[in-house]
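Before relying on records like the one below, remember that each one covers exactly one chain. Contacts with other chains, cofactors or solvent are not represented anywhere in the record.
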Amino acid sequence: MAGLDAEFDFVAASVGRAAKLQRASCAAVLERDADAGRSLAAHVDLVYDAVERRLAERTAAYRATSDDVVRADAITEMRRLVWDVRRLQVNLAWLDAARQSPLDLGTRYFVEDAARALVASDVEVTVVSSDQPSYGTTSNPWEPLIRSWGNRSPPAVSTVVVVLLPRREQRSGLLHPLIIHELGHAADDEHGIIDRIWQIAHDRQRFTARFSRAVSQFAADRGVDKTDANAAVSTALRSWITEAFCDFVAVYHLGPTYLYSFAAEVIAASIDEPGPSHPSARQRIRLLLGELDRLGWGSAMRNADPALDMWLRELASGEISPDGLPGFLGWAIQELRAVIRKETRARLKGRVFTPDEDVLTEVAALLKAKIPPAQRSDGACIGRQSIILECWHAALENAGGGPAALATAPDAPELKDLLPTALELSAVTSAWEVQ
């Protein structure tokens, strides 16, 4: 009995120590006057409140029983809790990133403005340089833990969005527009956009009939019952709809810039391999080109780099398998693209990036002269979408154009300082105009 008590006390003390050490970093942020990371730290602080509550509950339950088997099981549970709390040290890296972002200041301004427009006016975005192989995001990531361990809802604090940026690309300004896709996920988390699309889809007779056939086919192919098949097909379809919505958000906000960034990052590694949560890259390119053409970008892309434009369109026109679950999911995304487009426009509230030849020509001329393009000749602010797009075009041209240039353009040395400086100056100019 005494041995079990000593072991429990040791493990419980280890949980408490781990939480205490990590909470200290939150306190350091919350005590500062600066705003950066304050909402993130407040969320993390609630996590450790929840850990301490759970520790107290487990300790009380242990003390209340004399059954050695139950007490031994409680010790095993507490050891798992030690590992759970130690894994929470990812919070420390996120807090460090909030204090010192891997992004340049101009890109930070651009991302934060986009987040306020897409997600919430008081949203706090933290971009973290991570070891993940691709971009990713999470919104209010600890709410489930706070609710279950803390046994209460988090207080009203600002929405927290954490964007994971591959460490290898933290200085690749031309790829950072991919963050806008990630903010689409955060917008859905905040506003339930995919739920609306899902409801509209299931109100359509043509869609529900095809969905029902896909569920039956999945059940037969996998040897599962209809309930499990329905759950599997629904989960995959919601994921594909989500990815399509986030792609639409990014391309309507950024124009061809997003297509270039997406293609440079994704299609070198994958083209026809659909995933459980993603359409194939070929299908996504097809959708993106379709929307860009609707927005009037076709001639601008052809003029900027005809070889690259032709290659991307050839990729998009390639055959996509119509069979099995991926075939149904691909059909569904095409079927619902008008609904996805409508929800995208509603979220952007009319802020859609469309071609303006005069602006783009003036930006291109300034870039050639190595002048950060923040203001037009008449003094008007140049939008940051135009700046990033023309930086892409300049980088592609300097790299020789075509598909190979797409791969190397993000490393354009002439833009390393020019792009972030232009974005920063554009933000300042825009603020002056508002005043």
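The beta strands are 124-130, 136-139, 160-166.
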